[in-house]
């Protein structure tokens, strides 16, 4: 059996660094919720808290923003409805659709989470310095934007190539 030598970077891949930071942030949010008296909160719920607009959102839109399937988001939403954190009501713009909103209890849970996020941002800025932390946030945002743009360009190039083959 032949052995393939995999190419290696000189340092840990960026995707691994970002993934580790994301997992640490997600775990921190859940642990903080537990410390603040919300032991029912688990990591899967972060996809809702991170995508639900204050005035409410449709689950399909939340799933798209979270990068998960509509079915997965629906499962998490139903669980949070069962916990009394969310409620679903008819969407006033489309009566066939449901709008996901916070209950009063859910607003308290989300409010605790947002206060913690503000505290984290302040602690990171104090730890790294406001300017350096702002640069880190900016660079990560720009990386995401570049990846989105490059993906869109590849899709567009593929469409052009498909049309050329069809002609």
User: Are there runs of 5+ residues with pLDDT below 50, and where?
Assistant: none
Q: Structural class of the helix and strand makeup?
A: mainly alpha
Distance between the termini: 44 Å
Overall CATH architecture of the largest domain: Orthogonal Bundle
Shape: globular
Q: What is the CA-based Rg, rounded? A: 21 Å
Averaged pLDDT:
94
State the major sheet.
Answer: 2 strands, antiparallel
Query: Number of helical runs?
Result: 6
User: What level of helicity do the residues show?
Assistant: 55-70%
Spatial order of the strands forming the largest sheet: 1-2
Kindly provide the name of the CATH class of the largest domain: Mainly Alpha
CATH topology of the largest domain: Arc Repressor Mutant, subunit A
Quaternary state reads single chain
Order of helices and strands: HHHHEEHH
CATH superfamily label of the largest domain: Winged helix-like DNA-binding domain superfamily/Winged helix DNA-binding domain
How many extended strands?
2
User: How many separate domains make up the residues?
Assistant: 2
Strand content: 5-15%
Write structural notes for this entry:
Helix content is 65%, strand content 9%. It is mostly helical. It folds into 2 domains: 14-127, Arc Repressor Mutant, subunit A, CATH 1.10.10; 129-167. Helix 3 (59-66) packs across helix 4 and helix 5 packs across helix 6. The protein is globular and about 55 Å long. The model has no long low-confidence stretch (mean pLDDT 94).
Structure summarized in a few sentences:
It contains 6 helices and 2 strands; from the N terminus they run ααααββαα. With 167 residues, the protein is mainly alpha-helical.
């Amino acid at each position: 059996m032949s052995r393939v030598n995999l190419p290696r970077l000189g340092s840990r891949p960026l995707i691994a660094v970002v993934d580790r930071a994301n997992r640490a942030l997600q775990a921190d949010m859940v642990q903080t919720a537990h410390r603040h008296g919300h032991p029912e909160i688990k990591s899967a719920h972060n996809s809702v808290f991170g995508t639900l607009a204050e005035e409410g959102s449709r689950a399909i839109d939340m799933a798209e923003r979270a990068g998960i399937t509509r079915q997965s988001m629906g499962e998490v939403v139903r669980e949070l409805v069962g916990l009394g954190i969310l409620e679903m009501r008819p969407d006033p713009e489309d009566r066939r659709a449901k709008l996901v909103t916070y209950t009063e209890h859910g607003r308290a849970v989300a409010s605790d989470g947002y206060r913690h996020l503000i505290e984290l941002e302040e602690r990171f800025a104090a730890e790294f310095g406001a300017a350096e932390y702002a640069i880190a946030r900016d660079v990560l945002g720009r990386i995401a934007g570049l990846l989105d743009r490059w993906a869109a360009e590849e899709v567009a190039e593929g469409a052009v190539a498909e049309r050329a083959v069809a002609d």
